[in-house]
Amino acid sequence: MKTFKQILNDIDIRSEAADNEKSKNILGNIVAKMSDRAATDMKLGTLIEEVRKEVLPEVKAGYEELTEEEKADVGQLLVFSCGLHSLVHFAECCNNSLTEAEKGMFPERVPTSDPTMNKQSESATCRLVRTCSKAFARGGDAKNGVHLEFNAYVQPFLQEHNLHTLPLAPYRGNRFNILFANASHVFFLRHQFLSFLDGRQNNRLLKSILHDLKCPEFLAGCKALGLISKFVTTPLWSFIEDKSIHVMEMSQHYTSLVESLEYAASHMDEFLEGRILVFGEGTPVNRDSCLDELLKPFEHDDIVQSLLLVIIPAVVKLCKKLFSDHLQDGKFANVEIGSDLYNKTKSVPKHNKFAESIFAYMDCLMKARRNNSTFVFGTLQLQ
To answer: Mean pLDDT throughout 124-153?
Structure first.
């Protein structure tokens, strides 16, 4: 909040307005805020709303003639949540669900070839996806990774499926949807990984991957996450990124998401066959070779179904929490096109990816040059 006030003060100085009218007008015109659901961020919204109410009598014409109810409505700061952060929460939810499901699948403990490859609170399926990315994706592990060798090895397979590059992304530099997208690609490339690793396990990372690839439960988990990627998270991301869709119009997509997943939980065969379009006929599904592989009968589809019966209800519960404002009886539900609230929120984005990219860039600089302060980097960016 101190930083925000300093920015307003700087604007006043630059505009040479001694009475601070510029900052007050800016405050009076702020009607909405984007949040990432962090507790500190929510508190900031409350503080900004309090400051706005103090300046509204000075900057809004006819404010004193308004009723108390109208003043409360004008003074309210609308708080929206970043849509893309929901994908991060989806990944956390699926990881937790897989962890619990895997514990029930093995009589003693979840198998692992090397405990050093484990991460606290990470399911074995997610471990397989992460280690495959680390070993095979461009920009992965420079010491133990084999991106160049595998990329050369897999070229004939990629050309056969009309793919120009290896469809596997590094975790570094990617946050949204990385688990789901990479899980689908691990399942798609599983046979290529196995044949490549035959006789090539010359380090602990590759040995761990080979061990996990031979475990049907973990591959089933990759297929479950891959199906969610193709029919849920990737289409949702496209709606969130689509600038032609008003933030209030997301209510229909969130409602369709919850209703379709509730239906899928009791009609799992249809979901496995790709016959449930989560967002209706307009669901943007990329019909590529990876999807074809995910929809093919898999010898362990019974395990895939068991995992989805755990994952999907958990995701539905999460969606009802994350999107409560847009679902039935929520404050942003059923907002009519052309209404005052609709027009007032025309400029509201559906995500804060730009701000996140700035934070990531700053974080990268701070790690690369640890002796410098944030003030130095902020000054350099301004210049």
So the answer is: 94
